[in-house]
Design brief:
Number of domains: 3
Distance between the termini: 53 Å
Strand content: 15-25%
CATH class of the largest domain: Alpha Beta
Order of helices and strands: EHEHEEEHHHHHHHEEHEEEEEHHH
Oligomer: single chain
Shape: globular
Helix content: 25-40%
Length: 323
Amino acid sequence: MYPFRFSKAASEREALLAGGRGARYIAGGTTLIDLMRETVERPQAVVDINALPYGRIESGRSGLRIGSLVTMAELARHPRVRPEYPVIAQALELSASAQLRNMATIGGNLMQRTRCVYFRDVTAPCNKRAPGAGCSALEGDNRMHAILGGSAACVATHPSDLAVALVALDARLELRGQGTRVVPLAEFVRRPGQTPQIEHDIRPGELIVAVHVPAGPYTARSGYLKVRDRQSYEFALASAAVALHIENRRIVAARIAVGGVATVPWRLTAVENALLGRTPGNDTWQAAAMLAADGAEPLRHNEYKVELLRRTVARQLETVGGA
C-alpha cells in the first residue's frame, strides 16, 4: 500500500471540500481498502465520511429513502423492507458475508468496482485500470465475464447484487456536490464503451447522499435469485431480480433486471413487455425468458451463460409469479 493522507470530515461541507481537492471518500472501506492494498487504487488522500447524517431509512407512501451510510445489514433487516421490498432484502443477504454486510454501506456497495481478475492483477493489461493497455479477458480466461453490454475495450461484469434489485425497481440516486441532483441508477452506472475507466456518472468531489426507491404495487411481489459456483461468499454467474404486479390472473406490470452476465445491471425490457397482459404460468414464464439473452455476445469460455441466463430468469419468474 502506498502512503496517503487520512482525515475525518465532521460535516458535509468538510467532506465536499476534501473531495473537491481530490480526496477519496471512505465509510465501511470494504472495497477501497482492498484496492489500495493491491495497489490498484492509489489515492493521495482519503476522507472518512461516517460522521455525515446519511444513516437513516425512511419509508412512506411514496417509497423508500435510504441514506448512503446505511449498512447492508441494517437495510436487509429493516421491518418495512423485508415484507414490502423483499427483492432488496434478498439481494443484500445473498451478497458478501455477514461480517462485510455489517460494515459495508449502501453508497459504497453501489460504487464498488469489478471483481475481474485482470483488473485486480496490476501485472495484467487492463483498460479499466490503465486506459489503452488492452483487455486481457478478451483472449484470456473469460468464464466469469459479460455476455451483454461489453465492448472491445472491456467485458468485466458489474459486481453489485443490490444494484440489480434497485435497477429493477427504478431506483434513483440523490447526489450532492456543487448542488443536488437526482439520477436514475440505471443511468448512473455506465457501460464501458471506449472509456471503461469511467464507471459512474459522478462528478469530481460529488457524494451519494441517498437512494430513492419508488413505491409500486409490484414491490411486495418480488425476489432475487443468484446462481453461483458455491453457496456463499461468491459473485454471481447469473442473477435475476423480478417484481410483478398480477391482478385477476393477468400480469399488469413487470420489472426485471439481471446481473452476473453484463457490464452493468441489465434491465430486460423485452422480457417485461412479453409478460404484460399474459396469464401467469409456466408457458408464459418460459416463453418470456427465452428473450432474456437477446443481443448476447458470448466469449470463448462463457457461452454457457446464454442458457444459464434464460433458465435463471424463468426460474425466478415462476418463484415470484407462481406456477
